Amino acid sequence: MPCTMKRLWIPPVDSHPMPLTCFRDSLPSNVDLPLTGNRTSQNILKTPNPTREKIYKIQTCEKLSAPYQKLPTCTADFHLYSWTLPSVSTLESLAEIGAGCFGNTKQMIGLIFPRPIAESEYVCRVPIYLSRGLARARVWKVNKVRLDPSQLQKAMALHSVLAELLTELTHYEFYSVDSEACKSCKVRKFNHYDWNPEQSLFLGLLTITKDKLIDWAASDELLRWSESMKLWRMGVSKTQSIVELHSSGIISAYPCVLSSLPPNMCHGRLVRPRSLPKHDSGLFVVCDRINASCPTKQRDRDTVSCYRLSRHLNACRVNSGLSEKTSSRMPIDFRTSDCFVHPLPAWLWFSLTLIPPILYQTNRALLSVEFCVKLTQFVTLSAANCWSVVSPLTVLVPDRLDAPNGMLRQLYHSTANDKQAESSNAGQHWDKKVVTKLPASYPIPGPTELLEATTLLRAADSVNLERLEFIGDSFLQLITTLQVYQNSSLQADEQQLTNKRSVLVSNANLYGIVDREQWYRYCTTRPFDTRDLFIPPCYTLKSQYQEPDDLRLYVKLTDKSLADMIEALLGCFLQCVGIRGACGLLQRFGISFMDCVNGTLNSSASMWRCFFQDPFCLTEQLSKLTIGSAGGDEATTAVLDESIISLQGRLGYVFRNQALLHEARTHSSYSPLEPTVCYQRLEFLGDAVLGYVVSDDLFRRFPDYDPGMLTNHRSLIVNNLVLARVLVDLKLHNGIRHNIPSLHSMVDKLCSVRLADVKSLSELREKIQLNITALPMKILGDVFESLIGAVFVDTKGDLQVIQTIVRRLLGKVLKLPP
């Protein structure tokens, strides 16, 4: 039977209560925070500014907070969660301490929740970046425990003590009896918080576990330590010369000097040497027993060897723990009489420091599940069965070991220590036994994939949305170009078409989608820092300590960041669900009007049919315009037919509707005195089609390219200089109908640049630039794009045909390195 406390714990009450303004439900969804001007303004501008920052309240998963979670008032079941880690010896190496320093590791810090936080017992796998490498923690429900009211009171009291220890990891008052040091120390951060479970970000209780149960014996000892500290502060108790160590490993005496412990009990204790400077907040773990070099020496001159133990404040940053060293740091000797002892052994304190990163990453994982459900309801307009499909998933949060190299800088790639740590993790086989991905037919990307699409680059995570934004932006340009192309007249020029498209793809339009659906709550925007951002579960920040844009309550996001998230989300759909799924998302956004969600079309060509006019109608419209200055002359018509046959042969495609080919090769200067259809509409379309096809090719061929490399490579391929040279090389320029005298001389100059003589795209562009004349060069590049657009229209949008033609026409260029 667990022992009970005679006096029930009462949550601390502020002696000067003030109305809380940080209540979760009362916080504003977002607050304007202009980069310049008055930061207190909370008015949202009618036209969003991409460079403007706004603050949004921090959100937590519904499963981790009220009202889903609620502390009961009577006997009830609680769900106990813990996590597996690599072997103890591996963790000691990753923490840069000596082998065996952690000692007894049967105990752990865990979390209990009134209700389960996930349907699957194996909730998620999350990364923790320690001093020398990555340790994967696998969060799982280990047991269901029943607590009566007195046990719940004790559990809440224990949580309060652990929360204070976690907040004040190195506060002088916990270890030192030096009153001057305590006075000079900064104000305790824990005093900034109020017990308020219903309004807290996380509603769960910290506890000490052993053998998948709550360790009540250890809990009692830690509560006694807390009482001893209060009595000592009041001057009631005195320092004990000899302290007995309880079997739980918790020291209940306060204050405790290392010399007061039995010599065989010092190993694995956490201490703070009195000799450390006041500005040094370090803690040390004792790595061996007391060294008595001579029996005649006084006890207070005995020394111990200690290793500094990190608090791992940057455990959520992917650039932490990249050292390839395998040996630990050198220990430091301290006198036992100078070392004040922490109530927790080093292993329990270490597991306590992991609570903030584990809770943060678990929240991210569960938010991605929640977002997946919201997206399903948004796209399919149905809530039926979506939660039952998504909720059983186990979320594997990406880390250095499984993130694509293109996501990380070269210096941030996984290390040998990362791989060795994972090989020693007893829970690694779980990943293959649980469901981590949605069915292939599901219309939404899975939670793990959504984490990539909602993580900004500045979050310092192993994945970010930059690559998905690259491909998503190209696809968005394609669909919106089709939308504008469908609704424009044959006489519309390129500038008019571009202006119409700009409205659809603008950051203001994309940001409006995020704001309307409140998807900003799923965006990871910054690195997580325990010291500055963590608030213990069940606590809220007191109003008198709140800042207008307090980082513990708010995150800052620009409108452009949220617009980028929409493009990345589109790229995520494109890669995970396919073109139809991506078009369905755009349809729900109001950007595309194709019925791709409920349609039964299968071929890529048939998907775009609604975007193209009937070919006979198009031919009739074109016939009303001037096709050639010698219309009606049979000899000229015969020449035109022969040139068209030759042009189609070099292009490698025979048009069903040759009026499109006439349009694609006609410049506006061809017949200035009469209305002439020219290539501007098809060039506008072909530019987007070519950009998407090349982007998709680079995205798939170079998975290790970062977004900057992808963008640079694409710009070296899809530009007027290179396209003009390819057009001339393939002799496709012969069919251009124009009235530009300088075009012929430009063709001669381009012929002097041989593709076979260049070794890179950059070299090719430099050689072409030596002979450049802006207007003729642009005409040649535009004709190349208009031909691609004409084929796209003629095939009703068959991207496979376009990909084949692009590979044939740009084959030499695509093979060149940047």
- State the total count of DSSP E strands: 17
Largest sheet: 7 strands, mixed
Q: What fraction of the residues are assigned to beta strands by DSSP?
A: 5-15%
Give the overall average pLDDT: 81
The number of domains = 2
Strand order of the largest sheet: 9-8-4-3-6-5-15
Gross morphology is elongated
Q: Roughly how much helix do the residues carry, as a percent range?
A: 25-40%
As an assembly, this protein is single chain
| Continuous helix count | 27
Gap between N and C termini: 72 Å
Alpha-beta classification: alpha+beta
Spans of at least 5 consecutive residues with low confidence: 1-11, 13-29, 31-46, 179-185, 292-300, 597-603, 622-636
Task: Compute the CA-based radius of gyration.
Answer: 34 Å
